[in-house]
Amino acid sequence: MSENFKNQGGVSSSEPSRLYRWLTSKLFMSRLASLRYQAKLRAKFELRRLSAGSPHIVEYFHQVDDGYSHLSAQLLSAISKRYDVTVVCHLVSASQDANTPEPQLLSDLARQDAIHIAPHYGLHFPNGKTQPPKALVDQAQAILAKQTAQGFIDYLADVSTALWNHDQTTLAALAERLGAASPEVTAARIQQGNAQRAVLGHYSGAMFYYGKEWYWGVDRLYHLEARLATLGVDKQPDAAPLAPRKTVEIGELKDNGSLTFEIYPSLRSPYTAIIFDRALKLAADSGVKLVVRPVLPMVMRGVPATRVKGAYIMTDCGREARASGVPFGPIYDPIGDPVRRCYAIYPWACEQGKGNALLSSFLRLAFAKGVNTNKLSGLQEVVEQAGLDWQVAKEQLADTRWEAMVEQNRLAMYEAGLWGVPSFRLLDKDGNQVLALWGQDRLWLFSREIQRLLKAG
Fold first, then answer.
1. Which residues on adjacent β-strands are paired with residue 60?
2. Is 102 helix (H, G, I), strand (E, B) or coil?
3. What pLDDT, in 10s, does the model give residues 364-401?
4. Into how many domains does the chain fold?
5. Number of continuous H segments (helices) and E segments (strands) in the chain
6. DSSP 8-state code for residue 62
7. Euclidean distance between CA atoms 267 and 181, whole angstroms
8. Which long-range contacts (CB under 8 A, 24 or more apart) does 17-23 make?
9. Are residues 281 and 139 in the same domain?
10. What is d(CA 356, CA 360) in angstroms, rounded to the nearest whole number?
11. pLDDT for 179-207, tens place per residue?
12. In terms of residue numbers, what domain contains 224?
């Protein structure tokens, strides 16, 4: 490989001991992803809340220069009016630790992603705008830091819209009318927000928190809305959710292979595990040319991981899988040798026309069946369920062709402004990039973009 990634150790270890792998798989990953754990946690929280006579409190963490936060800002007032809850708002800044390994890429992606998804939620994001300049960011933070709890909710959308429009005149007028905190007070408010976010166990902006669970931006509001409705605090129970869950739409038109749909999966990614088969199905149903470009898991290519981030991912993945009707859990962590061995077999599997079947089988057995792929018997089960001959497959374990392949794919992914998995790219008939986004929760957007391109001819 062109870069020699070393084992980072600790939570980011790509070479865990057998005991550590077992403990992580059973007591951390599988447990956090399970419906039983979620239900138990929720019931325990509500029991304590009722015993204390506390109201339903939804905490919201707003990062003014985060694109996802701008979308959430446009729904905050509606949330507070529709649901019988107390909304507590916090100002936060971008995380500067291992939870955000690519801060500039994330900032750029959040802005571009928000532009694409905003219209589908009935929201607005200014197209063509860059990140707001620091002077305007500081002013927006100062205005919000000055507000009362209700004032923050009432004026957040106006302040955020002016900021993202780079509208210095409107921001100045808002500061004059609503007031603005001093730099010292503003910094203290942000520090308090960051501290509260850390205590509760997260690291991002645009986060909603209720009863031991996190909900990231407009994409996860449907989970929070469903939970609040179950608790009987929805004042309009017959109305549609404010931010309904988006689904893949195949559409009537079918391509003849003129469009290319690229998938960048990883064999240790829970999000890849719950979307890979559906991504393959989208390509087959829509007729686009499918190109699967596997990459190494993030911790195996030098990207750090944290337990806080891992906990959120597993909890969120469990919810997303259940909402999609996709089996998820029990899990047996395939980090390290299992990934390498499967990738060693992959070029040969592709030659047999079974490359995608091999990846699908590996992800299903590791993340939905709890098969220990660190054992050769587990890998044999993966291979045979993919319809391949194990006796021939195990002869491929010394094959190193995969190393150059995954590195080339990683570089292509970064060139597209992406770094996490699963990532997707859609190319037009001339090979030009039309759309490139990260996340299993963007497959619906690619399905609609495919139909848009086909209608445009």
1. 89, 208
2. coil
3. 999 999 999 999 999 999 999 999 999 999 999 999 99
4. 2
5. 18, 8
6. E
7. 48
8. 18/374, 21/332, 21/333, 21/335, 21/374
9. no
10. 6
11. 999 999 999 999 999 999 999 999 999 99
12. 55-230
